[in-house]
TrEMBL record, chain A:
One of the Pfam families matching this protein, by short name: ETF_alpha
Assigned keywords, A-Z: FAD, Flavoprotein
Species per Swiss-Prot/TrEMBL record: Candidatus Ozemobacter sibiricus
Cofactor binding description: Binds 1 FAD per dimer.
Record-annotated Electron transfer flavoprotein alpha/beta-subunit N-terminal domain positions: 6-196
Superkingdom in the source lineage: Bacteria
Keyword Flavoprotein recorded: yes
The protein, known as: Electron transfer flavoprotein, alpha subunit
Obligatory cofactor(s): FAD
From TrEMBL, chain B:
GO molecular function, one term: electron transfer activity
Descriptive protein name: Electron transfer flavoprotein, beta subunit
InterPro entries linked to this entry: ET-Flavoprotein_bsu_CS, ETF_a/b_N, ETF_b, ETF_beta_N, Rossmann-like_a/b/a_fold
Every Electron transfer flavoprotein alpha/beta-subunit N-terminal domain range: 22-213
PROSITE patterns recorded: ETF_BETA
Family: Belongs to the ETF beta-subunit/FixA family.
Length: 329, 280
């Protein structure tokens, strides 16, 4: 019987559920419908917004399983893993999905070992074999040059992290009903040898992970002070500002802005590259964007191979004109 | 202070082939380097040793030639190195890899700190570091961008997350995984290279680590690659040539309209760009 069900691990900040959770519900709902099983959203926090828990039901969860304790306010690997393990032992879910975020990519591999099961990182496609219930986990490998489909034949739960923005958030269906269970976290789980002492927000403009639009500057911008032009375009588009490694290495942008193999992997709705050549290492971090625009003087630049809209031209001519079009009434 | 650094040898280029039957990488005939993120781990480890005293041990699991990566680590300044190599390790997924490394680390106890790269550029999972911590029941800080303090009992680190940096403190022994910001790697020195050539590097197999047949390699791996395929590149760029300022202005207008038609603009800009198209 497939009743053990499909779980997603939702994320929160300051008690409010984060949008990436709605994307996980999209994934989880599709699998649960195909398998004919129940979808549970697991969330941990100090004090979770009750309306948000209801929203999780409206967005496709059959049940919300929430654990609360002051120590769960921010993500810490040990108490989060211990609480999750507690729930896994109680109910033995078939499938457990998390986000491929800084939280998910830390918690899930820790839990996979404790649960003695496999884990597939950073999936961009998920499917299920109806007969066997085997999860088909597809992810880019070797810098996105190939895709690999991975199964976990014997071990349970089958675990995967899912790349943020690789699917739209689940739509809200007002009036959809489900069960909301809020409990205190098991006391034995509430210890941590890691303590949080403080937090420093990154420059807002570099918040690439959540951005639905990203402007990325490459070395074609030529000088640190010209990055301001990219910034102006980003403002006009309400976009985050990222850069290639060359730009970050030159100190024109901070490391949190770096997109690519040794920086961040992003999947925005729109990526615009300004003077970006499209090296394989850079493409690895952005080629799953929904729409890719490139502005580059070199018609043979690799980036045009993955672009939907390309302008072969001087960014210093094109971008000011584009900003004008976007800002002018 | 004893600092252990698991490093991985990865293919230099992205021109790697896959074995369609087993779904594993074919490494023969491809230049190999130390995973770039592991160089940051090494550098941080060396700097912490310079500050706190003690020793740095590099370890890797891989084919016999992975010993080159260890010699390079020693040339950079690592004190010792251990190679985990045996046919039985082939095809390990992150479960089996982290188990083997954890077993080796147990053998090297007592230790204070383990430093991993955030992820390897070939497998690109970032799962091995947290996995080792779980096997050894150690506390963990991932995505470390800098270490501000290290005492025999605790480490203070800055962790890079989506919204900024967390300041965290962790009891030792513990494990951290590092991102590029952690430290810019040094080059090997001549003296280091000489030492590396002479240094005796032990090679451990599954029996040395007490691993049973079901705990290692492909057999011991819970995950199976069942299919490999090339991503369908469905993108066909609409290319606009803009050789001069006038053409650039036209191209910009066309792009604005294209963005609007695809609903890619924020609400306010969309209506403006849409209007322009209407008039254009
Ligand atoms: C292990 C490893 C990891 C790496 N990780 C990353 C990573 O995470 N992220 C990353 O980005 N890179 C990474 N790189 C580096 C990568 O190989 C490239 O060097 C880098 O991406 C190139 O950046 P770029 O496109 O800004 O610069 P370039 O390749 O120099 O390209 C500049 C482009 O600007 C164009 N241009 C010049 N002037 C103009 C103008 N006026 N108008 C329009 N276009 C113009 C040029 O035609 C050119 O195509 C990595 C490399 C290695 C080896
Ligand atoms: N075979 C290996 N030998 C030694 N260390 C490894 C190995 N595989 C992974 N690691 C370590 O784990 C980190 C993450 O690797 P991965 O999970 O493969 O992305 C690397 O940066 C290394 O520090």
């Amino acid at each position: 019987m497939a009743e053990a069900g499909i779980w997603i691990f939702g994320e929160q900040a300051r008690g409010r559920i984060l949008p990436v959770t709605w994307e996980l519900l999209t994934r989880g709902r599709a699998l649960a419908d195909k398998r004919g099983s129940r979808l549970t959203a697991v969330v941990f926090g100090a004090q979770l917004d009750r309306a948000d828990l209801q929203e999780a039901i409206e967005r496709g969860a059959d049940r919300v399983l929430a654990c609360e304790a002051p120590l769960l306010e921010h993500f810490l690997p040990e108490p989060y893993a211990a609480c999750l393990m507690h729930l896994i032992r109680e109910e033995s879910p078939e499938i457990l999905l998390g986000a491929a975020s800084s939280t998910g990519r830390t918690l899930m591999p820790y839990v996979a070992i404790k649960a003695d099961t496999g884990l597939t990182a950073d999936c961009t496609e998920l499917d299920i074999e109806t007969q066997t219930g085997l999860l088909l986990q597809t992810r880019p490998a070797i810098g996105g040059n190939i895709m690999a489909t991975i199964k976990t034949p014997q071990h349970r739960p089958q675990m995967a992290t899912v790349r943020p923005h690789s699917t739209p958030p689940a739509p809200r269906q007002p009036g959809r009903v489900g069960e909301i269970v809020v409990r205190r976290a098991p006391p034995e789980a509430l210890t941590s040898r890691v303590r949080r002492r403080g937090f420093r927000p990154a420059a807002d403009e570099n918040a690439l992970a959540e951005a639905s639009r990203i402007v990325c500057v490459g070395r074609g911008i030529k000088k640190g002070e010209h990055v301001a032009l990219g910034r102006r375009l980003a403002r006009a588009l309400d976009a985050a500002l990222g850069g290639t490694r060359d730009v970050v290495d030159r100190g024109w942008l901070e490391y949190p802005a770096q997109i690519g193999l040794s920086g961040k992997t992003v999947t925005p709705r729109l990526y615009i590259g300004l003077g970006v050549s499209g090296s394989i290492q850079h493409l690895a971090g952005m080629q799953t964007a929904e729409a890719i625009v490139a502005i580059n003087t070199d018609p043979d630049a690799m980036i045009f191979k993955v672009a939907d809209f390309g302008i072969v031209g001087d960014l210093f001519e094109v971008v000011p004109a584009l900003i004008k079009h976007l800002e002018e009434r | 202070m004893k600092i252990l650094i698991p490093i991985k040898q990865v293919p230099e280029t992205n021109a790697v082939r896959m074995d369609e039957a087993t779904g594993t990488m074919i490494r023969e005939g491809v230049d190999a380097i130390i995973n770039p993120l592991d160089l940051y781990a090494l550098e941080l480890g060396l700097r912490l040793r310079e500050r706190a005293g003690g020793e740095v041990v590099a370890l890797t699991m891989g084919p016999p030639r992975a010993i080159e990566a260890l010699r390079e680590a020693v040339a950079m300044g690592a004190d010792h190195a251990v190679l985990l190599s045996d046919k039985a390790f082939a095809g390990s997924d992150t479960w089996a890899t982290s188990l083997a490394l954890a077993a080796a680390i147990r053998k090297l106890a007592p230790y204070d700190l383990i430093i991993c790269g955030e992820r390897a550029t070939d497998g690109d999972t970032g799962q091995v570091g947290p996995g080792i911590a779980a096997w050894l029941d150690l506390p963990l800080i991932s995505y470390v961008a800098g270490v501000s303090e290290l005492t025999p009992r605790m480490i203070q680190a800055r962790r890079l997350v989506e919204e900024g940096y967390e300041d965290l403190e962790m009891d030792l022994p513990g494990l951290i995984t590092v991102v590029k910001e952690a430290a810019a790697p040094r080059l090997p020195t001549l003296r280091g290279k000489q030492r590396a050539r002479r240094l005796n590097i032990p090679v451990w197999g599954p029996d040395d680590l007490g691993l049973t047949a079901t705990q290692r390699g492909l057999v011991g791996s819970p995950t199976r690659v069942v299919k490999i395929f090339r991503p369908k590149i469905s993108r066909q760029a609409h290319l606009v040539k803009a050789p001069d300022a006038a053409a650039a202005a036209r191209a910009a207008q066309e792009l604005a309209a294209w963005l609007a038609s695809r609903h890619l603009l924020p609400a306010a800009a969309a209506s403006r760009a849409g209007q322009e198209v209407g008039h254009g």
